[in-house]
C-alpha cells in the first residue's frame, strides 16, 4: 500500500466540546388543524412544555382514547364497535379496547418541538449537524426561520447538516414531527408504525444532539472482514468543506475486545482529499495471524479507530466490528464456514412501558439473555429496524439478526407497483446498511414482511440482486414469508411448519394421529438455497391476569381486563390460573412438535418462532411462553424449554405416541449438533420411566467416535417390548447425549381389559329408551357422535387437539376455537386412563372425535369431569364429560364419541373402559340433578 507506515497507537479520547446534548425540556405545541407551517410557528415561541427524549404519550399529552380514536392498524374484528357485550367498554371514562394494549393518550398529526440552543465560539466555521436518533416519523427542521429540510426515515436516525446556519450565539431550533401515514404507505400494520405493538407515537427518542466536526471530517466507515485473508477492508468516506484540496494523514488502529484491550499494529496512509466535496478511500488492514472470529459461541469483538488529520485539525470515528463470515452452501447456512441453524423468534416492537423502542443497553441485554436461556440464537425484527444499542448488545451476546426495512406492504399497501414506497424501501435499506452495517450481528436483510403487489416479484428480485452486489457482509432475501426466487440467498417461507395459516383442523397436529417421525425434507428438496421456516408456532395460551399490574407505563392491558370480566361474568374467575397453566402445557407441547420437526430436517436453515413472547395486538395473540415483559408465565422454565431448543438436541422418531402392551417400541434416535465443534467419544444413553419416576427400561447406543456439526445423525434404534407394562401407563423416554437431554411422553395400555361387572347402559342417542333406563334407576353412559350437538349448545365450536392458532379475532374464527382440556387427574373416572390436568398426546383422539358442550345451557354452575378451555373472548363454560342424576338414574354425558371405529382407537377404548369402571363403582354418585329435557335439548333431533 502506498505511503503506509507503522506508528504507536493512541487510545480514543472523548471530547465533550464537540457535542451538545439537547435532552431535557423543550417547548411544544400540537398542530391539530395543520396550520403551523402556513402561520410560521417556527418563527414564534411555542407555549407548551415537553421532555425529550420521549413521546407525547410518555409526557401524558394527547387525546383521551374514545370510540373515534383514529388508530393506525387494521381492526379485523370490528365487533367492539357495535356488539352489546362491549357496550359498557364504549362509554366515556370506561373505554377499553380488545384489539391491542391501550395507551393513556393518543395523538395522530403534526406536533412542534422547539428549543433554544447556544453555539460556542469554538464551533465557528465547523461542520455542524443535528442528530435525532429515533423519530416517529416525518421530521421537518428549521434553524431560526430557515427551513433545513424534511426526512421520513423510520429505522435510522434523522441527521441534518446545518453548517452555515449555526454561527456562535443563540438560535432557535424548531422541529415539526408528523406521525400520520404520509405519501409513503409502508402498510398500516407494519410494526414500525402500528398501534398493534409499539404504537403510532409522536416524538423524538434516543440521543438528541448537535455535533461539531472539523471541515475535513470522516463521514462514514464501512468495514468488510475477510476471515480467509485475515484482513479487513475499510471503506472510508471523507468530506472536505474547504474549497481547496487538503493533504491529510489517515490512521487506522484496531483494538481486540474493545478500547481497553491491547491495540493491534496501527496503520498510516498519506492521502489528498478533494475540495468542495470529498473522497472515498479504501484501506486494507491486516488482522494478524490469528484473528478471533465472531459467532454465537464466541462473540469476539474488535474496535477500529479511524483518524484523519489535515489542515491543522483532526477527526476520529470509532467502529465496532467482528471477524465473521455468514454465508450459505447449497441448502445450508454457514457461520465462518461451519453449518449453522437459526433458532429464532420475532421481535415485533412490543414495548408496553414506553410505547417506543428503548435506548437503554440494559433493556436489550435482558432480551438477548432471556432468548439465549431458552436456547435461541437468532431474532427477526418483523417489519422494523431496532436502534443502534440493540445491534451492539446482539454483537456482545452473539445473536444473528434479520433486519427489515420498516414495511409490511399488504392490507392496503403494495410493493413494486410504482408507489412512493418503492423508493422509500431503496432509501431505507441504504440508510439501515450504512448506519448498522458494521455490526457482526447484522446477518440478514429483507425488504419487510409478507408483501403484496402485482409487480412485487420483479421489484424484490432487483432489490436482492442489487444488495448482493453492493455488500457481501450478510445474506439477502425478498420478504419475510414470500416470494421465493432463485436470486435470494435464503428462502423465508411458511410451508415447513405443523400448522399453516388457514389449515384449521386439517393440519398435521390436528388431523393426523400424533407422531414425531416427520420432517420437512420433501418440502425443501425443490429449493437450492437454505430455507428458514417463517413464523412457526403461533400457539396461544390463556391470558395471565396476574400480569395486569405489570403495565405501569403508558400502555395498559385493558384487553386483559375485558377478558377477565368475561370470565368472571360466566362464573369461572376462580379457574383463571388453572386455565393458564393447562393451556400453557398444551402450548409447549405444540411448540416442541414444531421445533423438533425443524431440527429433524436435514440441511434445514432454521426457524423463526411467532413467538417466544406474546404479541399484544391483532386482537391479542398470546402466543408466548414469556409475556410482553419477557418474564415466564409459570408453566415452563427456560431450562426445560432449552431441552428441545438448543445447539445440541437429541431427537426421537416415534411412529405413534400410544401403544398396547403387546407391541414394542421401535424408535430411531438421532442428534442435531449445531455446537461449535463435533462431539467426540460420546455414549448416548436412553431410559424409560413411569409417572412415579421408576426406571422400567434403559440402554445405551454404541460409542460414537464423532458426531459432526449438522443434523440428521443417527444414534441408533430403541427396540423394547412393552409386555411388562401391565397397567395403563404414562411413560417418559429420555435420551442423553454429551450432557444434553430431551424427553417424550407416550402411553401404554393393556391389549385387553377385564369385563365390566355391573351392567351399564351405553347409548349414542338420548331417546325414549334412554329416558326409560334412567327412570328405572340405571347407570347410563351417553357418548355422543361428533356433530350431534346443536349449534347453540356447542355444535358450532370447532374443537381440535392443538391450542388456538394466533387468535380467533384476527383469523376470522379459524379453528380450533379452544385451548385444550382441564381436569382433575385424581378423579376416579381416570383410574384406568392416566392423565395430567392438561392435554397430552393421549387426548388427541378424544379431541378429534368430540364437540364442546356449553354447560350453562344445561345448568349454570355445573362442574364437569373434563372441561374444555374456551377462547378467552367468549369465555364459556365448556365440557367433554359431566355427570348428573336424571330421574332415578345416574347419567354420564360424553361429547366424545367413544364407540365409532373403536377397533382403530386404543385411546377411546381405554377411556371408555376407565369410565365404565368408574360408573360401576360406588364413587359414581352425581350431585347435580337435571331434567331429562335439558339433556335432550343438547342434541340435534
From TrEMBL:
<comment type="similarity">
    <text>Belongs to the glycosyl hydrolase 2 family.</text>
</comment>
<dbReference type="GO" id="GO:0005990">
    <property type="term" value="P:lactose catabolic process"/>
</dbReference>
<dbReference type="Pfam" id="PF00703">
    <property type="entry name" value="Glyco_hydro_2"/>
</dbReference>
<keyword id="KW-0326">Glycosidase</keyword>
<dbReference type="InterPro" id="IPR036156">
    <property type="entry name" value="Beta-gal/glucu_dom_sf"/>
</dbReference>
<feature type="domain" description="Glycoside hydrolase family 2 immunoglobulin-like beta-sandwich">
    <location>
        <begin position="217"/>
        <end position="324"/>
    </location>
</feature>
<dbReference type="GO" id="GO:0004565">
    <property type="term" value="F:beta-galactosidase activity"/>
</dbReference>
<protein>
    <recommendedName>
        <fullName>beta-galactosidase</fullName>
        <ecNumber>3.2.1.23</ecNumber>
    </recommendedName>
</protein>
<dbReference type="InterPro" id="IPR050347">
    <property type="entry name" value="Bact_Beta-galactosidase"/>
</dbReference>
<dbReference type="InterPro" id="IPR006102">
    <property type="entry name" value="Ig-like_GH2"/>
</dbReference>
<dbReference type="InterPro" id="IPR017853">
    <property type="entry name" value="GH"/>
</dbReference>
<dbReference type="InterPro" id="IPR008979">
    <property type="entry name" value="Galactose-bd-like_sf"/>
</dbReference>
<keyword id="KW-0378">Hydrolase</keyword>
<dbReference type="GO" id="GO:0009341">
    <property type="term" value="C:beta-galactosidase complex"/>
</dbReference>
Amino acid at each position: 500500500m502506498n505511503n503506509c507506515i507503522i506508528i504507536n497507537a493512541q487510545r480514543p479520547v472523548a471530547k465533550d466540546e464537540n457535542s451538545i446534548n439537547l435532552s431535557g425540556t423543550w417547548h411544544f405545541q400540537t398542530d391539530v388543524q395543520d396550520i403551523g407551517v402556513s402561520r410560521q410557528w417556527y418563527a414564534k415561541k411555542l407555549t407548551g412544555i415537553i421532555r425529550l427524549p420521549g413521546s407525547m404519550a410518555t409526557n401524558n399529552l394527547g387525546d383521551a382514547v374514545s370510540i373515534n380514536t383514529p388508530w393506525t392498524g387494521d381492526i379485523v374484528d370490528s365487533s367492539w364497535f357495535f356488539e352489546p357485550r362491549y357496550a359498557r367498554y364504549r362509554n366515556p371514562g370506561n373505554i377499553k379496547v380488545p384489539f391491542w394494549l391501550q395507551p393513556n393518550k393518543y395523538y395522530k398529526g403534526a406536533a412542534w418541538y422547539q428549543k433554544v440552543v447556544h453555539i460556542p465560539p469554538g464551533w465557528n466555521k465547523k461542520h455542524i449537524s443535528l442528530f435525532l436518533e429515533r423519530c416517529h416519523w416525518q421530521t421537518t427542521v428549521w434553524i431560526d426561520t430557515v427551513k433545513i429540510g424534511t426526512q421520513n426515515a423510520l429505522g435510522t436516525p434523522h441527521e441534518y447538516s446545518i453548517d452555515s446556519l449555526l454561527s456562535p450565539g443563540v438560535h432557535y431550533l424548531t422541529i415539526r414531527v408528523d406521525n400520520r401515514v404520509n405519501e409513503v404507505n409502508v402498510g398500516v400494520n407494519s410494526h414500525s408504525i402500528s398501534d398493534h405493538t409499539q404504537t403510532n407515537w409522536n416524538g423524538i427518542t434516543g440521543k438528541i444532539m448537535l455535533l461539531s466536526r472539523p471541515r475535513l471530517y470522516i463521514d462514514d466507515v464501512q468495514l468488510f472482514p475477510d476471515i480467509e485473508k485475515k484482513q479487513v477492508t475499510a471503506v472510508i468516506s471523507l468530506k472536505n468543506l474547504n474549497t481547496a484540496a487538503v493533504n491529510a494523514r489517515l490512521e487506522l488502529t484496531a483494538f481486540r475486545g474493545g478500547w481497553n484491550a491491547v491495540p493491534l499494529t496501527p496503520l498510516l496512509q498519506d492521502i489528498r482529499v478533494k475540495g468542495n466535496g470529498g473522497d472515498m478511500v479504501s484501506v486494507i488492514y491486516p488482522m494478524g495471524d490469528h484473528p478471533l472470529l465472531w459467532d454465537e459461541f464466541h462473540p469476539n469483538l474488535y474496535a477500529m479507530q479511524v483518524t484523519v488529520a489535515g489542515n491543522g485539525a483532526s477527526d476520529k470515528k470509532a467502529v465496532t466490528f467482528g471477524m465473521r463470515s455468514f454465508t450459505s452452501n447449497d441448502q445450508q447456512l454457514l457461520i465462518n464456514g461451519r453449518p449453522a441453524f437459526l433458532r429464532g423468534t420475532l421481535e415485533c416492537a412490543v414495548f408496553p412501558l414506553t410505547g417506543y423502542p428503548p435506548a437503554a443497553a440494559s433493556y436489550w441485554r435482558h432480551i438477548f439473555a432471556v432468548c439465549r436461556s431458552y436456547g435461541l440464537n437468532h431474532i427477526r425484527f418483523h417489519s422494523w429496524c431496532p436502534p443502534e444499542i440493540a445491534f451492539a448488545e446482539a454483537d456482545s451476546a452473539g445473536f444473528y439478526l434479520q433486519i427489515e426495512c420498516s414495511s409490511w406492504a399488504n392490507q392496503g399497501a403494495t410493493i413494486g407497483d410504482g408507489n412512493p414506497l418503492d423508493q422509500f424501501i431503496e432509501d431505507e435499506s441504504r440508510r439501515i446498511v450504512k448506519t448498522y452495517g458494521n455490526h457482526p450481528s447484522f446477518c440478514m436483510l429483507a425488504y419487510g414482511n409478507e408483501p403484496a403487489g402485482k409487480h412485487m416479484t420483479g421489484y424484490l428480485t432487483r432489490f436482492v440482486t442489487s444488495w448482493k452486489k453492493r455488500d457481501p457482509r450478510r445474506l439477502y432475501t425478498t420478504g419475510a414469508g414470500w416470494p421465493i426466487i432463485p436470486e435470494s440467498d435464503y428462502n423465508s417461507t411458511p410451508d415447513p411448519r405443523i400448522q399453516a395459516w388457514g389449515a384449521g383442523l386439517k393440519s398435521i397436529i390436528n388431523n393426523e394421529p400424533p407422531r414425531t417421525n416427520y420432517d420437512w425434507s420433501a418440502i425443501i428438496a425443490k429449493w437450492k438455497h437454505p430455507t428458514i421456516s417463517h413464523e412457526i408456532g403461533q400457539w396461544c395460551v390463556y391470558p395471565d391476569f396476574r400480569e395486569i399490574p405489570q403495565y405501569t407505563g403508558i400502555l395498559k392491558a385493558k384487553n386483559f381486563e375485558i377478558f377477565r370480566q368475561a370470565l368472571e361474568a360466566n362464573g369461572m374467575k376462580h379457574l383463571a390460573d388453572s386455565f393458564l397453566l393447562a393451556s400453557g402445557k398444551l402450548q409447549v407441547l405444540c411448540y416442541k412438535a414444531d421445533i423438533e420437526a425443524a431440527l429433524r430436517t436435514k440441511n434445514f436453515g432454521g426457524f423463526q418462532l411467532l413467538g417466544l413472547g406474546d404479541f399484544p395486538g391483532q386482537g391479542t395473540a398470546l402466543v408466548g411462553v414469556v409475556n410482553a415483559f419477557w418474564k415466564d408465565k409459570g408453566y415452563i422454565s427456560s431450562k426445560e424449554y432449552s431441552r428441545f431448543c438448543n445447539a445440541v438436541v437429541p431427537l426421537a422418531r416415534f411412529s405413534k405416541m400410544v401403544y398396547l402392551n403387546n407391541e414394542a417400541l421401535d424408535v430411531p434416535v438421532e442428534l442435531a449438533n449445531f455446537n461449535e465443534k463435533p462431539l467426540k467419544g460420546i455414549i448416548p444413553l436412553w431410559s424409560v420411566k413411569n409417572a412415579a419416576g421408576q426406571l422400567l427400561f434403559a440402554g445405551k447406543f454404541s460409542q460414537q467416535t464423532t458426531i459432526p456439526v449438522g443434523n440428521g445423525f443417527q444414534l441408533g434404534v430403541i427396540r423394547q417390548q412393552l409386555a411388562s407394562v401391565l397397567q395403563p401407563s404414562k411413560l417418559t423416554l429420555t435420551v442423553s447425549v454429551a450432557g444434553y437431554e430431551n424427553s417424550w411422553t407416550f402411553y401404554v395400555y393393556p391389549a385387553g381389559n377385564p369385563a365390566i361387572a355391573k351392567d351399564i347402559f351405553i347409548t349414542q342417542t338420548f331417546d325414549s329408551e334412554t329416558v326409560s333406563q334412567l327412570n328405572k334407576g340405571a347407570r347410563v353412559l351417553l357418548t355422543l357422535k361428533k356433530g350431534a350437538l346443536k349449534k347453540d349448545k356447542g355444535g358450532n365450536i370447532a374443537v381440535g387437539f392443538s391450542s388456538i392458532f394466533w387468535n380467533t379475532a384476527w383469523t376470522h374464527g379459524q379453528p380450533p376455537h379452544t385451548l385444550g382440556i382441564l381436569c382433575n387427574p385424581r378423579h376416579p373416572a381416570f383410574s384406568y386412563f392416566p392423565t395430567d390436568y392438561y392435554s397430552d398426546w393421549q387426548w388427541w383422539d378424544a379431541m378429534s372425535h368430540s364437540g364442546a358442550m356449553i354447560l350453562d345451557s344445561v345448568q349454570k354452575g355445573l362442574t364437569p369431569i373434563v372441561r374444555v378451555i374456551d377462547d378467552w373472548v367468549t369465555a364459556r363454560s365448556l365440557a367433554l364429560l359431566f355427570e348428573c342424576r336424571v330421574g332415578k338414574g345416574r347419567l354420564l354425558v360424553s361429547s366424545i364419541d367413544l364407540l365409532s371405529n373403536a377397533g382403530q382407537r386404543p385411546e377411546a377404548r381405554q377411556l371408555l373402559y376407565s369410565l365404565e369402571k368408574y360408573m360401576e363403582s360406588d364413587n359414581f354418585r352425581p350431585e347435580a340433578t337435571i331434567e331429562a329435557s335439558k339433556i335432550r335439548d343438547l342434541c340435534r333431533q
